[in-house]
Amino acid sequence: MVVLNNEKVAAATKKVLIVEDEGDWRELLRRVISRSGYQVIEVNSGVKAIDQAMAVHPDLILLDLGLLGMSADQIIGELKMNSSTNDIPVIVQTTDNDQTRLRHAMEAGAKQVLVKPFDLSELPAILRKHLASQNAGAQ
After folding, report:
1. Is position 12 within any domain?
2. Has residue 1 been placed in a domain?
3. Which pLDDT tens digit goes with each residue over 99-123?
4. What string of DSSP letters covers 74-127?
5. CATH number at residue 65
6. 9 is a domain residue
């Protein structure tokens, strides 16, 4: 019988939606996030991200800025306009250092921008921080 500490048990009830079109990077993110005890849902496009967010209502979305078809600020805007998804925190990740695009993502409602390649060992703490602030805001 495996006994998990309270943090792992609490994390296991949380869902993280990874929106990333680059398969290898998505796989790395999935491994790190699932090892931290979170349930992971993965998609590779903005349209699928919106569909999944509405279907499963994840507790947090990790969104690639450089998706084809829809920009991150468009995706975030769609999520923020819908009452069933407007409370989901979104963390944007990117290799792009275009300050205009980053600013647009933040103005649309992103909680944080992570510039790739970021230290994956820091990701669990970043997720906990945003999930804790989401829980505090819900009370």
Report:
1. no
2. no
3. 888 888 899 999 999 988 889 999 9
4. HHHHHHHHSTTTTT--EEEEES---HHHHHHHHHHT-SEEEESSP-GGGHHHHH
5. 3.40.50.2300
6. no
Count the neighbouring beta carbons within 10 Å of the beta carbon of residue 119. 8
Beta carbons of 113 and 92 less than 8 angstroms apart: yes
Domain span at residue 116?
20-120
Q: Between β-strands 15-19 and 60-64, what pairing exists: parallel, antiparallel or unpaired?
A: parallel
| Domain-located, residue 110 | yes
Residues 99, 91 contacting (CB under 8 angstroms) = no
Question: And the tokens for 17?
Answer: 């939606």
The pLDDT tens digits of the residues spanning 3-40 come to 444 455 455 589 999 999 999 999 999 999 999 999 99
From the number of C-beta atoms within 10 Å of its C-beta (0-12, 13-18, 19+), residue 53 rates as buried
Q: What's the structural domain count of the chain?
A: 1
What are the C-alpha distances in Å from 110 to residues 36, 50, 72, 75, 95?
A: 22, 15, 9, 10, 16
Q: Which of 52, 12, 53 is nearest to 34 (CA)?
A: 12
CA 10/CA 8 separation, integer angstroms: 5
Q: What is the pTM of this model?
A: 0.87
